[in-house]
Fold this protein.
Amino acid sequence: MELHVVIEGTKDLTGQLYRQIKDAIRTGRLAAGEKLPPSRLLAEQLGLSRKTVAEAFARLIFDKLLVGQVGKGTFVSDVARQVKPAETSPGFAGAAVAERWRSMPTPLRHAGPAGLLRFEYIGGAPARSLFPHADWRRCVLHALRQSTRSRGTYGEAEGLPELREAIARHVAFSRGVRCSMDDVIVTHGAQQALDLVARVLVEPGSTVAVEEPGYPPARQLFAAQGAHVVGIPVDAEGMQVEQIPEGTRLVYVTPAHQFPLGMPMSVARRKALLARAQAVGAIVIEDDYDSEFRYEGRPTDALQSMDRHGCVAFIGSFSKTLSPDLRLGYLIAPQAILQAVATAKHLSDWHTATPTQMALAKFMADGDLLRHIRRCHAVYAQRRESIMRRLGSDLAPWLECVPANAGFHLAALCRQPIDMDMLLRLARRVDVGLYALDGFYHFSPPRPGLILGYGAIETADIDPSLDRVRDILQQMG
């Protein structure tokens, strides 16, 4: 790869080269430790004499910007770089829009590995230790072999046919969804599926109804599209659908495992939601983010399976069943928006990475996904039981568990006033990561409580960590 240097004219050639390399180092374009081309090669690339290049290198070495290593070459030294970003013009026309995006809170953005604690109750993170590395490696190698036969063209925006067929079979088997592969669009996680539906339905001023409390990234995404977002309260049966206003264009719900409180939407409420959506002409987004993990009670079909008027868009994600690293999800789109969403997908990123799709299609076709879900289910069930047992015993004076029969997080509401900021702060001091429910409320005063994810914490760590939480609550009085 050539070093980007532009030499103009025939004057001060050494100075031009010296100043450009110096500027590249100071602005960070050349990182510390970066190896420069040999002087002979750089001279040929720039049409200069080798002596000119050697003199520029010598000046940079004298200024301690470069360092020569005998037998290895010339490298950028570990100098302090003074990176100065270009200042934006005061008349920047898009300043207001950019500021609106910059100032948006991101309550569910996960910290990097360095920011995680020993005992983590962060929500939405599956068990990393359970990831089937050997099975996935085998499927990735299969995908790479298949890729060698590719003609090197772009794929279908809707996704790889083999994967779409596997997804259609999976959701029909596990969730009772009524669809064929033609209804499936492969996405970069559930979040892109939400974005695609919003792109084709939401205009500035459109009314979108969301759950309150609910999933902040969905609410923020709809608001960013210019929607008038309305929060609809939830109760023990789910969203109170009678409060969905006239003129609503889109309704976002999590009926299998309400996020973040966890209760399922009752059958009666589901029927009422479908009737209300038909009455106002709305499309319902059913976010089925983690319902593969069910622990008690009779299973309920997806809301989409009850839909007789083509108004439900079913969204799923492999971030919860496998890993967020894969960034794979899917949308089962109703006919009314199917082609529009496919066009939006094509225009936004053309298609999801083909080798990854090939690997997942193989993983699902071989039965590895269902086996992995069963393994995770057994572990999550044990962790869930441990947390519920503690919430029903020594933590009961302070916290009350919200009934939930799916997913891999529980919500616990406060029975008495607790200084939640202090609790979270003191818990971090003893290496316990706790997270409050406050950030999931937007339209109403929050109910104080905790969201306890049990994907990222090991089973053996639950009791010791909750012992620390109990001790803190006792000390707080």
Summary: The mean pLDDT is 92. Residues 47 and 355 are 42 Å apart (CA to CA). The chain is about 40% helix and 15% strand. The radius of gyration is 27 Å.
